[in-house]
Write a structure and sequence with these properties.
Blueprint lengths: L27 H4 L2 H10 L17 E4 L16 E4 L1 H8 L38 E4 L2 E4 L2 H9 L10 H28 L6 H21 L7 H4 L4
Helix pairs in contact: 5-6
Length: 232
Amino acid sequence: MRKIDKSPNVPATLVGAPVPTSAAQVDKNIYRASDVCNQLLADQHNKCCYCECSLTKRFNDVEHYRYKNHYYWLGHNWDNLLYSCDLCNRVYKNDRFPLAQGSVEANTPSDDLSLEHPLIINPAKVDPATHIKFRRYEAVYITPEGKETIEMFDLNNKNGGRKELLENRKQLYEEYIEIKKQLQMAQNLISLPNISQEVKNIANEWLISCNRCIAFKTSPSTPYSGMLIAQI
């Protein structure tokens, strides 16, 4: 997971959209409108808000952080919407929204949401790195929220359904480590005494290339890059 810098500009379809008074009034034509999907995908760099896999508009979902069947009044609320892969939304999260012990669940629009303490990380509100770190390509929780999130979305493939997710993170991590090794080699070469200008120029070009690769690998647009910026 990686922090999402969500646009404060509410998509036009949601501006003035009716506030549902029941789950039946939550309208997919409103929360799944093209301008809503496009803005979410842009804000999330075309990645799933939870597992960071690559997304397209097709076969993926506008996700209600607080699920719409219970929190119906938030069904058209921009702050409650994210974009998710179908696995994270339909298989793993679905209508689950665990709260910490002592929370007071909101059941009506007049209830105070601040009395709830969700155990699922909302990456548009908090930095996931404060809850989840990575040891190489394995997610490691450091808070109860991190633990619940890792387990809910099976981010370490403990249940066997997310082999591809783990393999993709492993590949990115190994590529990143190899580039870091090459970067160190270039730095060592430049620091050698009596190095010729020709060799120094080659080493500098190598160094620049390595830094560009690292910047790309850790970029918000790169799938699974949250892993690289949250290493233990």
